[in-house]
Amino acid sequence: MMHWIPADRSGRWWLLAGASSLLVSLLLWLIRFVILGQPFTGMHAFRFMLLAAILSFLFGFIGWLGARKLWLFSNLGMLIGLILMAMYSKGLTGWEDLISFLVFLEAVAGGFMAGLIVEGVYFYRRISKKE
Fold it and tell me: How far is residue 113 from each of residues 28, 39, 99, measured CA to CA in Å?
C-alpha cells in the first residue's frame, strides 16, 4: 500500500523533506502575497520559509524513524491546511490572514494527531499479535 514511501532510515527522507519544504514555502508565499495581496516583505517570506522547513524536516525525521503513517497523515494535514488557508483568505476584511493561518496550524495539528492515533493502533495490533 505504501511502497512509494521510503524505508526507515533511508536518505530519501531528507530529499522528501527538502522538496516538501520548498513546495510548502512556495504555496505559503502564494497564499500570502498573491491570494491575500499583501505586499512582499523579506521578513514574512523568511518566516514562512522557516515554518515550512521546520514542519517538513520534523515530519521527515518522524518518517526516517519509521513512523511512516504519522508522516503521511501529518503531510495530509499540511496539504488540507494549505487548501483551507487559501479558501479562508478570500474576503479581505482584515482578519482573513490571521484566521487562515490559524486554520492552517489547526489542520497540521489535526493531521499529526490522526497520524499518532493510526500509528498507535498499528503498534497495538503489532504488539498484540506477538503475545
Answer: 22, 34, 21
